[in-house]
Amino acid sequence: WNYMEMLEQHLLPWAKEKFGWDEEYQEEWTFQQDSAPRHKAKETQQWLRENVPDFITAKEWPPYSPDLNPLDYSTWGYIESKACEQPHKSIASLKRAIKKALDEMVVRVVDT
User: pTM for the full model?
Assistant: First the structure.
């Protein structure tokens, strides 16, 4: 997937449904990403300026913030600990273990 295609096909429809998005009504909302290279790319930042009403630019991101990037500090750590309890001989094995960990993850892990 192209990252901007994913934003267009998933983020925008979700945001329109969740926050309302027409000339008469729109709840305020802000979009923030983590510091993945694709998220910081100039073309991604430009696309967000043109298509998202408000977003936190790469220059505004605080570095290493667990409060703003909970997936980086909580969810992924949990998934890694579960999926990598044993070494994997192949990428396919690792993928299966990650999917299993995601399927078994309880909601309270995500909420913390």
Answer: 0.52
Spatial CB neighbours of 32, under 8 Å, sequence gap ≥ 6: 55, 56, 61, 68
CB 73 within 8 A of CB 66: yes
* Planar angle of CA 39, 40, 41, nearest 5 degrees: 95
Task: Give the number of C-alpha atoms closer than 13 A to the C-alpha of residue 24, restricted to the C-beta side.
Answer: 0
Count the Cβ atoms, other than its own, within 10 Å of residue 7.
20
pLDDT digits (tens, 9 = 90+) for 45-59: 899 988 888 888 877
Cα separation, 66 vs 101, whole angstroms? 21
Q: Taking a C-beta distance cutoff of 8 angstroms, is the pair 6, 30 a contact?
A: no
Q: Are 83 and 98 in contact (CB under 8 A)?
A: yes
8 A C-beta contact, residue 3 and residue 44: yes
